[in-house]
Amino acid sequence: MEHPYGYIKDNKVYLKGFLGQDDRVIGEVKEDEASTLNYFEARFEQLKEKVEKLKTDIQENQNKGSFLMKLIHLRDSLMNADALGDFIPLIEDLNKEEEYLNEIIQANRSKNLEVKNALIQEAEELKDDTDWRETTEAFKDLKLRWIKTGPVEKDLEEEIETKFNDAVQHFFENRRHYYEGLALQAEENIKIYEALVVQAREAHDFPDAKVAFEISKKIQKEWKAAGKVPAEKRQPLWDEFSKLNNRIFSRYKRTLNPGPTMHPREVIRKAEQLTEEIKRLSSQPTTFELINQAKKIQEEWKKLPMRKPKEVNLTARSYQFFMDIVFEKAFLEKLVHGKYADFDEKPVEEQKQIKIALMKDLLHRDQTELETVTGNSENFRVQTQDFEIMMKKKLAGLKRKVDVKNYILRQLSFK
Fold it and tell me: Coiled-coil region(s) at which residues (predicted)?
């Protein structure tokens, strides 16, 4: 049975060849020849509708270039479709649409190339800018605009991508090096601040108030000249540094206005009395009232003249030793109650063992620090008198801390 675009032979349906193709089998006769031909004609009509719909979509949409691959796939499918009809007009229509789309795509790619070249120019102008925050935002905007801009010709794509990415990378590499440099400098600056705090501690413990004040003025100038560090690291150092210097100034101020004088015998008697009082408190259990009494004794001691008779020196060392015991025991109480919420409910013997263990740990730390400072001081080549006095003062303070903890350990062990 013949058909304008095919025929039936040996119960098989053939499509006549077109555009250089040979005749080919597209199906078989199922019921009768007429209904079979109708079936394949209907399939052709469906293909015509697909072509018309695609043409309509191209006309109605702004992003016409996005339909190119769909068009190519549809045209390829027409060459192999199992249907009966005149395929040549459909394919010619699609060829015309493809030419139309290629013209649009070519124009768009030329426009995209202009846009991307302009973005590359912007990136080149910004890449050496050191306003890191503002320029970082500008580059974020550039990268977003680059992504939103469509493609360019394939043979140019790699070249312009490289130019843009090189400019972007150049800026961010510069920024990284800058912040790495800042971080390294901040670490060095922190060491300077820490060293100034150490000097402030040593000046605070220096016996001569005037010398301590002169050192304080010098290190405060050095503090102001030190570089930047993150606020969260600088603040704790500043808190201690300023507190120490305030105390140094207060002590120096008192030397300028010493207040009422006391007879040496009266100073000796008062010093011995206060020492006996604090010694008595040091052997008693820590209470809120006991700590308040110790603080009152401290205030009384401060009222004694700065320049005391030599006979008070031994008494002063005893006073400081027992005062340290009182506050070290208070610290131990705070430590055990912070570590064990149910400390007061524990058996007395267990409480004692907990305190002994914690005190041994604290003692070990102080002994280690004392050994380190002792070793370091022996390696110093500085021979100034001020430095030697400071080191002796520091070592004496560390040794007293060790002696205080050993004393408390003995108290705990013989309870």
Answer: 37-64
pLDDT greater than 80 at residue 387: no
Report pTM. Answer: 0.40
> Using CA atoms, how far apart are residues 104 and 71, in angstroms rounded to an integer?
14
How would residue 186 be classed by pLDDT, with cut points 50, 70 and 90?
A: confident
Report the candidate in 106, 111, 79, 105 with the shortest Cα–Cα distance to residue 92. Answer: 79
User: Please, are residues 120 and 142 in contact by the beta-carbon 8 Å criterion?
Assistant: no
Predicted confidence (pLDDT) at residue 302 exceeds the cutoff of 90: no
